[in-house]
Amino acid sequence: MSSWIPLWLHKLGSPPTFYRFAGTLRPWAMGLALLLGAIALYGGLVLAPADYQQGDAYRIIFIHVPSAWMSMFIYAVMGVASFIALVWRIKLAEVVAMESAPIGAAFTFITLVTGSLWGKPMWGTWWTWDARLTSELVLLFLYLGVIGLYHAFEDRRQGARAAAFLAIIGIINVPIVHFSVNWWNTLHQGSTVNIFGKSKMSWDMLWPLLTMMLATKFYYVASLFNRVRTDLLALEGGKDWVRKIAEDEAKS
Amino acid sequence: MSALQAFFAMGGYAIYVWPAYALFFIVLIADTIAPGVRRRRVLRELRARLARQSVRQNRNSPAPPSP
Q1: Residues forming beta bridges with residue A55, ordered by sequence position
Q2: pLDDT of A27 higher than 90
Q3: Residue A134 phi, psi (nearest 5)
């Protein structure tokens, strides 16, 4: 491994070290996710006023939009981890990429169903083949494809490499999802929240949304660590450190 | 209508808002539980494998390792 990678990062890439590291951080990430999530729900469902056009139906935004952001963010993480896994053959990168896929699929599924539940009263339809909805559906299929390909191989590491390749090709869809509302004339509204400019949303609606975005980020960290730890145990079953954990857990 | 009733009514959109929130939590709770179930299974299978190995080793211990 090249010398420009700091030693601590190099060590963190080793499965037993990462297993302990993730085990220490996971409860904190989950705690923050629950705390921020509770604050965001209170702000979004109770404190924020009803929308002047959409009434209370708009409150679906507080889960729909953060889930949609996570569906793209997790795909980006999966793509980067897949690239690292293919180029440097780092086992941890493979595991991070493959264990991100189910979480990303979960958020994409939430995005599609909550969007449908929001679309029915506002647009009068559960589903329409407009660019934003279709590209988000393609994103779900990409996640499912990565999961399916990963499990289609007898050798898990071979499966991870094949699925990582698909994940990298599929990353082209992420900017399509993001810019679809600008590139095509869609039924789906354009972005309301703007990172670099002024958001088209009042502060008492915006802060619960941003808080929920943070909560879902921490949730992803907690869920990813949980999954990576389990996957490392499965992958490294023959190693001493895993045997020790198996024996220790049998005693308790 | 009391404040609490008004809250649950969601301005008439209750049948859309609450299922959306319910789904959000059900999916994420399932996502949190799943790795724990798999973890217990992985460790149980590993312990079973180790137990089989130690039985085989004890049986073979006087003789040299099988070819």
Answers
A1: A51
A2: yes
A3: -65, -45
Query: What does the pLDDT read at residue B11?
Result: 85
Residue A160 exposed, middle or buried by CB count within 10 Å (0-12, 13-18, 19+):
buried
CB atoms within 10 A of CB A170: 20
Tell me the β-bridge partners of A51: A55
In chain A, which residues have their Cβ closer than 8 Å to the Cβ of B23?
110, 113-114, 117
Contact B46 A226 (CB under 8 A): no
Which of A201-217 are b and which e, b meaning 16 or more Cβ less than 10 Å from the residue's Cβ? beeebbbbbbbbbbbbb
Q: Using the CB atoms, write b or e for A73-89: b if 16+ within 10 Å.
A: bbbebbbbbbbbbbeee
Query: In this predicted model, which residue has the larger pLDDT, A8 or B18?
Result: B18
State the DSSP string of A39-51: HHHIIIIIISPPB
The interface predicted TM-score of the complex, written ipTM, equals 0.89
Query: pTM of the predicted model, to two decimals?
Result: 0.90
User: Does the CB of B29 have a partner CB in chain A at under 8 Å?
Assistant: no
